Predict the structure.
Amino acid sequence: MFKKANKNKKWKEESKLYLKELQTFLDQAENIQDEILKRNIIYQMLRCDNVLTKLAENRFIYYYKMGYKKAKSE
């Protein structure tokens, strides 16, 4: 289950709250007049989002494996 989420990121793309916040950010970024600054800010936010996504997915996998190992030993 979590390995599948790691591959297609569906868990994030289906989050209405995540999508709402992302859209709010992009809407506000559209108001930045300086195109280079706007691109840099959006690019950096997306890089940060990617790092956080990888961290979350690694935690999902860690806890899944930990739970699986514990259930198997019982």
